[in-house]
Design goal:
The complex is a heterotrimer of chains A (252), B (222) and C (281). By secondary structure, chain A is an alpha/beta fold. Chain A has eleven helices and ten strands. In chain A, β9 and β10 form a beta hairpin. In chain C, α7 packs across α8 and α11 packs antiparallel against α12. The longest helix of chain C is centred in the N-terminal third of the chain and has 41 residues. Chain C is mostly helical. Classes of the chains: A alpha/beta (252), B mainly alpha (222), C mainly alpha (281). At the A-C interface, α2, α4 and α7 of A face α7 and α8 of C.
């Protein structure tokens, strides 16, 4: 069912003169889980960060082309608005160390000075932590700082923080690279549950993860979008030789 | 339940559905043979397409699980066994269709006495039972039941070994029974292969449950 | 081979011994100074001492109230000027380390740190005392502020540089505007480091005499006016210690003791606050 939420049209990214993402055209539908994979330096993270305009925060970084979110070009909108509308989870879990778990979840509201009543905040915290499969584990220590949590729990806290802003789209930049296998499975299980209410785009350098969690997979190589197809098709009979070489490990 | 577990259970269910279909095909072909019911036989021939499409789907589903989940240990053994059981069931389906084809093509009624003298009916019933028991063994992961299949296949082998003589006797008694006798001999050969396929299935079940490989061992050692 | 190892072990023990020995040697002079000042000055300190201005020569009694209050006022004023400016500059330097401005500003900060305090005093004399026509507390505060700046700037910059980028990224990705990211995430997380930089700079300037010589001068009377000369603790110590009167020597010891106490308290308070507020990154 075609229902695009994000569309890239002739999107290019540069670091200075370095052409890092080359002419990407892709259309992603609502409530899909999309994996973006490729070897190191292929532009997948740069492309991801172009979607919520985090790319331009790096000095010397520019881009051309359009990225449409629900039909509107994010480069025509206010960057801060775009970033508030799109959630992002990073490679290293990064909860705010000066805030408690409770405050971390509603950090998007706190730091922006958005006034929310205590009752509403309580609801948001419980809902977000439940969606991130963390509520039971922390509900008795909401006012402690999050530093005693394990890596997987901290990452789920970051996911809860992103969800609390009620985005439609959540971007994940190698979210389990820094986690051990058990924490990784707990986060992967979360993707299946989140799919019902959100659209997820997950950059991963672990192609087995891409195979396990996604509906469609995009393969980037040297800045180009080489192939974008159903995950089942991609991993049983990819259409491009480069894709096949990558997933069979014929080159790194 | 993880997505992988869900998909493996889906394959199990599909396999069981195919099993039920093949069992029914075998039974119907038997009834068609005994009653010489050509309509029933044609039904079997038509349903054979369903058996084939089951085989294709199960193959594809196993391939997808391999590609997407890289299963290991019992999941891996199960899928490897499932692929082979899939093929075995499809061949049994073919055999049932073959018997049905004979019924459709034959102009001669199979005589009840002849069927008894050659032990064809007994052999058929045993084959049907063996197939049913392989399915039970699969569903319940019962390797004791699976091991019992090997001995029971010996019964089918014995009847098959005796068949040249028993059929020759029938022909000697009345030369006019020659076409019928030839069909009967063919069906006996086919049923012996049903026994072999069922034995293979039993070996695969033991492989996936216990990780023991019993292929190519003599019956006495299993 | 074994003989060599034996020799090495001996050398190792000697080295360790030397290191410990020198550590003790350092402590000794410090402790001696502290105890001596305490001994000389503690007896001077009483309520009278703290609430009265120095008595004229020959009269008994007198105190350091004007110096005490004067130091306090000038340090406060200097902090009010130097802390915001220093923090902002430190934030700029940590956020934009590769710009030309950052390079030259950093260079200037380092040079400023090395400028002798008396030179700072002379400069402020020409900038403020001469135009205003009078020595004043303001001039003194400005001189002190100039001396505080390099320390605050560098410690703020170093503290913030140590914070991981991921912290900023997390806040930015939530749609938080840049100024709030700095004010509500980065600075609070670096609070311990920044605070210790500030207290370090205060401890530095509280004992500075030279810059005050040409700016705030000194005042035998009690004054809180910012546009008039103001007395300060280091200045009274200098004045009275070098005077020929024993009474005044005693005052100097008392003032030294107070100064010491103040710096000690500042350091202890900083350590306590830092430990309590330390953000585990």
């Amino acid at each position: 069912m075609e229902n695009p939420i994000v569309k890239a049209e002739n999107y290019n990214s540069y670091f200075g003169d370095n052409h890092v993402v080359k002419d990407v055209n892709i259309s992603i539908n609502k409530n899909e889980v999309i994996a973006v994979m490729g070897p190191s330096g292929c532009g997948k993270t740069t492309f991801l960060r172009g979607i919520n305009r985090m790319h331009e925060l790096i000095p010397g970084a520019t881009s051309k082309g359009k990225i449409l979110l629900d039909g509107q070009n994010v480069y025509d909108l206010n960057a801060i608005y775009v970033r508030a509308k799109i959630g992002m989870v990073f490679q290293r879990p990064n909860p705010f160390p000066n805030l408690s778990i409770y405050e971390n979840v509603v950090a998007g509201y706190l730091l922006n000075g958005i006034k929310v009543s205590k009752a509403d905040k309580d609801v948001i915290v419980e809902k977000s932590l439940t969606s991130a499969a963390l509520w039971k584990e922390v509900k008795d220590s909401l006012h402690k700082k999050g530093t005693f949590l394990s890596g997987g729990q901290q990452q789920r806290l970051c996911i809860a923080r992103a969800i609390a802003m009620q985005p439609e789209l959540i971007l994940f930049d190698e979210p389990t690279s820094a986690l051990d296998p058990i924490s990784t499975s707990s986060v992967e299980a979360l993707f299946h549950e989140l799919k019902a209410n959100y659209t997820l785009i997950i950059v991963t350098h672990n192609m087995q993860q891409a195979a396990r969690v996604s509906d469609r997979t995009a393969f980037f190589y040297m800045g180009e979008l080489v192939e974008f197809d159903d995950t089942k098709q991609m991993f049983t009979a990819p259409k491009d030789q480069r894709t096949q070489n990558y997933i069979t490990g014929r080159f790194s | 339940m993880t997505p992988l577990e869900n998909e493996i259970n889906a394959v199990k269910k599909e396999l069981v559905d195919m099993w039920i279909l093949v069992q029914s095909q075998l039974n119907k072909a038997k009834e068609a043979m005994i009653q010489f019911d050509k309509d029933l036989a044609r039904e079997v021939l038509i349903k054979e397409k369903r058996v084939n499409s089951f085989e294709l789907k199960i193959d594809r589903d196993c391939e997808n699980i391999f590609a997407l989940h890289c299963p290991v240990a019992i999941d891996l053994r199960f899928l490897l066994a499932a692929l082979k059981i899939n093929t075995n069931l499809e061949r049994i389906g073919d055999i049932a269709a073959g018997v049905a084809l004979y019924v459709v093509e034959s102009s001669v009624n199979f005589d009840k006495d002849t069927l008894e003298k050659t032990q064809l009916i007994r052999m058929y019933e045993e084959a049907v039972n063996i197939l049913m028991d392989t399915r039970t063994a699969f569903e319940k992961e019962d390797t004791v039941l699976a091991r019992s299949i090997f001995k029971r296949d010996d019964v089918l082998d014995a009847i098959n070994d005796a068949s040249p003589n028993t059929v020759a006797d029938v022909i000697r008694a009345d030369i006019n029974t020659l076409p019928e006798a030839l069909y009967i001999l063919s069906i006996i050969r086919k049923l012996e292969r049903v026994g072999d396929q069922s034995k293979n299935i039993a070996e695969e079940i033991i492989f996936y449950v216990e990780a023991k490989i019993l292929k190519h061992l003599e019956s006495s050692k299993k | 081979m074994e003989a060599k190892i034996g020799a090495r072990n001996v050398k190792s023990v000697i080295f360790k011994g030397l290191v410990v020995f020198f550590a003790f040697i350092i402590v000794v002079p410090l402790v001696v100074i502290l105890l001596y000042i305490a001994k000389q000055g503690a007896t001077q300190v009483n309520w009278h001492f703290l609430t009265h201005v120095p008595a004229p020569v020959g009269e008994k009694g007198g105190g350091i109230s004007n110096a005490f209050v004067g130091s306090f006022i000038m340090v406060m004023l200097a902090s009010i000027v130097a802390v915001p400016v220093g923090m902002m500059a430190g934030i700029y330097l940590s956020e934009n380390p590769r710009t030309k401005l950052a390079y030259y500003a950093g260079l200037c900060v380092d040079i400023l740190q090395g400028v002798p305090s008396i030179v700072v005093g002379i400069v402020v004399y020409f900038w403020i005392v001469k135009p205003l026509g009078t020595f004043s507390a303001i001039a003194g505060s400005i001189a002190l502020a100039i001396m505080m700046l390099p320390i605050i700037i560098r410690s703020t910059e170093q503290t913030l540089k140590l914070l991981p980028d991921s912290l900023k990224e997390a806040a930015l990705s939530l749609g938080v505007p840049y100024h709030r990211v700095i004010l509500k995430v980065i600075v609070p997380c670096g609070f311990a480091g920044i605070l210790s930089g500030i207290t370090l700079s205060i401890a530095r300037i509280i004992g500075e005499t030279a810059p005050l010589l040409f700016t705030a001068l000194g005042n035998s009377f009690f004054s809180t006016s910012l546009t008039k000369p103001m007395e300060s603790l280091p200045h009274v110590i200098f004045t009275y210690a070098t005077s020929p009167y024993d009474d005044w020597h005693d005052l100097a010891w008392g003032a030294s003791f107070i100064l010491l106490l103040f710096v000690l308290t500042l350091n202890i308070v900083t350590k306590v606050i830092t430990r309590k507020w330390k953000i585990q990154l």
